Amino acid sequence: MKVFMVKRYGKKEKLHLAEIAEPVVKENDVLVQVHSAGVNLLDSKIKTGAFKLILPYKTPLIIGHDVAGVVAEVGSKVQNFKVGDEVYARPADHRIGTFAEYISINEKDVAIKPKKLSMEEAASIPLVGLTAWQALIEKANLQKGQKVFIQAGSGGVGTFAIQLAKYLGATVATTTSAANSDLVKGLGADIVIDYKKEDFETILKDYDVVLNSQDTKTLEKSLKILKPGGKVISISGPPDPAFAKEIGLSWMLKVILSLLSYSVRNKAKHHRVSYSFLFMKANGNQLSRIASLIDSGIICPVIDKVFPFEATNEALTYVETGRAKGKVVVKLK
Hints:
The protein contains eleven helices and 16 strands. By secondary structure, the chain is α/β, with parallel strands linked by helices. The protein folds into two domains: 154 residues, Medium-chain alcohol dehydrogenases, catalytic domain (Quinone Oxidoreductase, Chain A, domain 1, Alpha-Beta Complex), CATH 3.90.180.10; 150 residues, Rossmann fold. Strand 15, helix 11 and strand 16 form a beta-alpha-beta unit.
C-alpha cells in the first residue's frame, strides 16, 4: 500500500511517499480502507520532533491522526463493526498513520461515520471534535449560562469548540481576523475580537473557562480574564505534572514537565484559577456521541481545502501557515 512517512525528524524534512505491506489486523482491530484523512498541526509537530519527549516515536513513521473510510477486515474478537461499515476515527497514540491506503485501529477507538457527512467532511472531525469534547465537557464541565473564551475561533479546534459550547448553553467569546468574523459569528460566537486590532484581556472579564491554543504570552493574559475558580485548559502546552502522571512518564520526565509548567501554574494560583494541559485521547464512544450531534444538525464541519493524497506535503505546508479556516483534508478515494 502507498503511505506518506517521516524518515527522520526535522523542521525542513518532507514526508516521503513509500510502498509498504498492509498492516496486520489484531484480534480487536478493524482494518479501515482510508477514503480521506484530516491534516493537523499535530502531524507537523510530530514530524519536526517537537513531541519526542512525550511521544517517543521511532522513525520511519507513518503519520496522520484523522480517518474516514470503510471497514475492509475485522479481527476475530471484534463485536461492533462488520466489513463494509463506513467509519471514522482518531487512532490512539503509537498507532497513528492515516496518511496511508489502509490502517488497522482498535475497535474501541472507532465509530460509525455521521450519516450526513461525506468522507472528506467526516475525516475533518475526529481530532478536533475529541479535543473540544474533552476540554469543554470532561475537563471544564462547561455549564449553561457560563462564559467561555475560545482562542483562534476560525481554526480547526475553534470552529468545532464554538459550536459545542453554544450547544452546551455557554456565552462564547473568540479571537479571529476581521476577514473571518462572519464565519465565527455564523458558528455561534457571541463576542468576536479582532486580534490584530484589539487586546482581548481589556475586553473580556469574569470568564469561567478559557480554551488556550496559542503561545505562552496569550496564555498568561488569559489568566487575567477569569473569575476566581475559573479554569484555563491549554492544548498547546506547557504540559503539567498531572498530565505526566496520567500517561505514566518516568520520574525524570515528571520533574522536567513540572519545571516547564511551574511559572504558569504559579501565576494561575496567584489569580485563584486553575491550569491544566490537555493532550486528547482516542475515544470511539465520544465520536459516536459527536456523530449524533452532527446528524442532528447541531454541529457542522468547516473545511477549508481538500488536497489529493499525492499532495499530502502541500496540505501539511498549508496547515503550517496557520491560515486555514477550519480543517484541511487529503482525499484518497
